[in-house]
């Protein structure tokens, strides 16, 4: 029995001593298996990274190809639309909605913010972000590109002709009111001098104050994205007050001669065409043609305050009209070229124009007692004009414009000869304009002018409110 116990104790002791050795032999084998598994996972991760990089490169290549196709399509569509009269696509319709009321002198109209310099390109988005872009966002990107490349910038209108054309399918209705005030003094000496300080004869002193109110309704629409037509219907109210001493009389009493007139003005029809695409730091050129009718009250149909005649012998009266005309009495045609140059944040603009007045034959002036005084053939002088200015966006809705307008009026001819006393006249006006866009369909523009030459109205004020449909 003791021998058996001794044998068991020896066997247990041996097992206890050999167990740590066996455990130590199994541990290196387990660590080797984990290292192999980790290496496998790293290899799979590297393969996945290579696959993701490959997909991103393919996606960027596809995006670049789509952008090139869109650019070529946008460049080719205006030409095809003009030649083939293609129907408008979704991008064009959305662009038309964003263009607002279009209109100047014009204009216009209007989103008054000039195009801004494009921001630097941001790093390409991750694949998940690219996939998340909605069709509306992609369409908006295309619209912004078209608007920057093809649309002239909009500025606060100062002059008659707007700089921004009306897009195809849009209708602009522009009610406006204009006020002008001018005053002039004239001194005429009729007699002879005995010594330089002594005059024997008559002195004719006249002071004339003129007020003119013109209300107009202008309608224009775009025939295509490059051409628009316009019709203007004016209504004129005028009043003159002349303070004078009646000529050829010895009285020193001053008298006041008041006269006024109101009626339809001369209806105008105009067309404008954008000659080039322009763009950022590239000028836009717009050609225009305007025709003025004779629908207003003719200056030769109003009664003049003369007895029998206004010139020559047996002349009595002031020689002033008893009622004022509201039209010029002559058909005229004007050609113009307007340019706009965007240079963020300002827009520079200008215009050159030439107006030709068509002559009239067998003109007769109406005087008192319903007597007609023949004047023969009359031809007003041509008018050469130019203007220039700068527009600046104050924010997304408001803008400010500064400009100068100048016109040279030629001498009038009667029966082929210059009328005695007729001289070339220079008209210069400094202009300041404001524009505020309430929404995409309605805006308000105000322009104030100050005359810098004696023949120019002292002050003028124009208020426009273009409405888009």
Description of the molecule:
The chain has 469 residues and is of the alpha+beta class. It is 24% helix and 42% strand. The protein has 4 helices and 18 strands. The strands form 2 sheets. The protein has a 12-stranded antiparallel β-barrel with strand order 1-2-3-5-6-7-8-11-12-15-16-17. A 4-stranded antiparallel β-sheet has the order 9-10-13-14, with no helix packed on it. A hairpin with a 7-residue loop joins strand 16 (442-451) and strand 17 (459-464). Helix 2 (90-99) crosses helix 4 (135-150). The longest helix has 83 residues, at 2-84. It is elongated. Residues 93-149 have low confidence and may be disordered.
Task: From the structure above, extract its key features.
twelve-stranded antiparallel β-barrel; alpha+beta
Q: How many individual helices?
A: 4
Question: What percent of residues are in strands?
Answer: 35-45%
The first-to-last residue Cα distance is: 120 Å
Using only CA atoms, what is the Rg?
A: 41 Å
Helical content stands at 10-25%
Q: What string, H for helix and E for strand, traces the elements in order?
A: HHHHEEEEEEEEEEEEEEEEEE
Global mean pLDDT: 77
* Shape, principal axes of CA atoms: elongated
Number of strands: 18
Quickly describe the structure.
Helix content is 24%, strand content 42%.
Give the SSE map.
Elements: H1 2-84, H2 90-99, H3 127-131, H4 135-150, E1 171-195, E2 198-224, E3 227-244, E4 255-264, E5 268-274, E6 284-292, E7 332-343, E8 346-357, E9 360-367, E10 371-379, E11 383-393, E12 398-409, E13 413-414, E14 417-418, E15 425-439, E16 442-451, E17 459-464, E18 467-468
Antiparallel strand pairs: 1-2, 1-17, 1-18, 2-3, 3-4, 3-5, 5-6, 6-7, 7-8, 8-11, 9-10, 10-13, 11-12, 12-15, 13-14, 15-16, 16-17
Helix pairs in contact: 2-4
